Amino acid sequence: MVDFDLNKIGITFRKKDKENPFVTPEEEELDASEFEEDEIIPKKTKSRRPREDAFTQQRLASINPVLTPKTVLPVYLLIGIVFVIVGGCLLAINSRVDQFTIFYQDCMTAAPSDGTFSDMPESHYEFYFHKNKTFDVAPQWRFVDDTSDDSTERGTCEIKFTIPTDIKKTVYINYMLENFAANHRRYVLSFSEDQIRGKKASYSDVHEAAGINCKPLSRNSEGKLYYPCGLIANSMFNDSFPMELINLSDTSQNYSLTNKGINWASDKKRYKKTNYPIADIVPPPFWEKQFPNGYNESNLPNIQEWEEFQNWMRPGAFHKITKLIRRNENDTLAAGEYQINIGLHWPVTQFNGKKGIYVTHGSTLGGRNSFLGVVYLIGGCISVAMGLVLLGAWLFSGRKVADPSALSWNRTH
After folding, report:
1. With contact defined as beta carbons under 8 Å apart, do 174 and 308 qualify?
2. pLDDT tens per residue across span 264-290
3. For residue 62, how many C-alpha atoms fall within 13 Å in the half-sphere facing its CB?
4. Nearest-angstrom CA–CA distance, 348 and 105
5. Ranges of each domain in the chain
6. Rg of the chain's alpha carbons, rounded to an integer?
7. Torsion angle, CA of 260/262/265/268, rounded to 10 degrees?
8. CA–CA separation, 175 vs 324, rounded Å?
9. Which residues, 6+ apart, have CB-to-CB distance to 134 below 8 Å?
10. How far apart are the first and last CA of the chain?
11. Which band of pLDDT confidence, cut at 50, 70 and 90, is reported for residue 26?
């Protein structure tokens, strides 16, 4: 290994430097940036001042109209005239809607049961036909008992009624309920959305869910789930309506009805056929009369196609409700005498309620209801009255527009 001393390296280089005295050390190159002053970056401070633009600084172009009697009065009068015209048109359309209502809640006790018909009390019916406003022929009824049924509401109520003029299509057959408080908070929340959508919901899903759940009707004493569960489904209106109106003058001309198309088409996307095994579910308590032996493969309800059920699951907002149950969009209901036979299953005496049939053809604005037309008329009259008041005030106590004598510094007092 070579013997080598690091201490002699410095001596060697110093000796070489002495032997070359004319060698000058190289000067370091200077950078111009060293003579520049450092840029001072201002500190960002938080500010709540809006952006500097026309919108945030409220410099957008605007119109500042000067309201004078000559500009305000025509507006009031125009609004009033338009409202009165619209209200008159609404009332005219409404007045051409034919309809009639027949209540039958006490058919078991008040109608004859010996096979004969009798006139119904005046409090049980109401007719309105715009071409025959004086029509007042009382409908007739009778009760046909079902001895095999021991329910408090049973049998058939047969009702005969007369139509003086044709009822144009589409004809709607509704049932009407009064004094039924379907808007109670606990009632409207008592159903299972999972069951409605066809899911196989467990007991905890339908009973313990926050807000909307099936309490207090979730399962029976054997632990089987009610399907559909909840108070709304359990109390479903189940009086049976026929699929035709009997034409008493010619039975070959009976008026056919259908239970299809009586509900919103969009509800079919919400209501789905259930995925429950039949052995795991039972009908609600009040459905026992319709399903005395429970569910089987042939009678399990398909709520996706059951439009009467879908209608009922939309509770009414008031104590008086109507629900569509039959319709005919193809034929006009001709003038004549007809009979409808209604199976009695839904009692109303417990809550002093009323039930009946409501028949109408409706209009482009819906059923017969004068409320909207009256509101427009009242609004128009108020607008015209305000215009007349302002006109009188301007004529008798108004001042000249832009009168400089009205300025505060020009007043004498």
Report:
1. no
2. 888 888 999 999 999 999 999 999 888
3. 8
4. 7
5. 87-363
6. 43
7. -70
8. 7
9. none
10. 123
11. low
